[in-house]
Amino acid sequence: MSSHRRRRSIFDLIDEYIEEMESLTEELMPIKQPSWNISTRTIEPLCNVFITHDEVIVTADLPFSDPDSVTAEPIDKRTLEIRAKIKRRICCGDLGITHQKGEFSTFNCQTHIPVPVDMDKKKVKFRKGILEVHLPRKKGYEIKIK
Amino acid sequence: MAVSINFVEKKSIPSEVTMLCGFPDVGLVGVLASSHVISELKLDEMAYVDSDLLPPIVVLHEGLPRAPMRIMGNNNLLVTIAETAIPAVGVQRLMRSFVDWAKSKNVKTLIPIGGIPVQNRQDIEEPKVFGTGSNLDMIKLLDQKGTSVLKEGFMVGPQALIMRYSAERNIPAIALLAQSFYNYPDPEAAAAALKQLANITGIKVDVSKLFEKGEEIRLRAKDVMKRTQRELNKMNKEQEYDLPLYV
Fold first, then answer.
1. Which of A86, B149, B168, B220 sits most deeply, having the most CB atoms within 10 A of its CB?
2. Are B138 and B163 in contact (CB under 8 A)?
3. pTM score, two decimals?
């Protein structure tokens, strides 16, 4: 073995630094959970947040849900919880889960709202299995144009 | 570093046939359309893609391991299916190899099927299908068949790359893009694309199951949709909304 170690280039050092950062990030990230939970009998639906000039629109895809059971309630100033009962029996096998047994009865997810909104003025629509929640944005201040 | 992309052929591949491509994209339109065609026409596995660019997964069907990206078919038709999101970092190399393989097999026409995201999708009862062609003959064909041609704008993702590489390699190709949800599985859009496919190519499949099983499909496809959305974000898919530049 050579007694001389090859001097590492700046690119090697950058690569090592990036690798170290990635591994640290992985360690800090919580372990990813599946989108379903047999013990709570819940399925996490697909959910999205769109920010427009004057409102935030939260949507969720809730197939098989009972329209009368759909709720979208704030749990704090920046978090909306969506729940809906599933109107037919959905077993693990229906979702292609063959290594566990169980049933699902509810959709449930919590969505972070990235900008301030007025939760009390929310408007909710539910059509074709898709929930749409409109939340007016709070205006903090106004810049006057002379 | 060169990354290997191998097409492992399990059966003799017919030449001069049409090839449908359903890669994960907005609304999973292409994947849902392709898997529906495979199921309705009972197509066999002809080949699969083995590459380090794909995630280290196998898909189990009837207990047997399968590659996530496969080419199904019979003597008259080939259909690609990808059952996992294609990593943004490898999409160009994978699609380039894919079109090269199609060229080597003398594929007659490549037809990528996908979605075109529209903000008011919920208000649309029957999604409209738009087309693009890899050459003027294909554009003329779309016109003759009454398919609206996307004349300007941006395409982003696997379908876009198939069109670009097909044009470069002189393979006739038509992309069929149905109005769809951006981020929710859209079986109705897949049905609309398949109806337009029948109109253009004569390849007919009954699409009624896509409506009857719509809710079930949406539920089962949601995790693939979520992963696809992450990869589409990395590809800057939202650029399809950008206004085209005219000078």
1. A86
2. no
3. 0.87
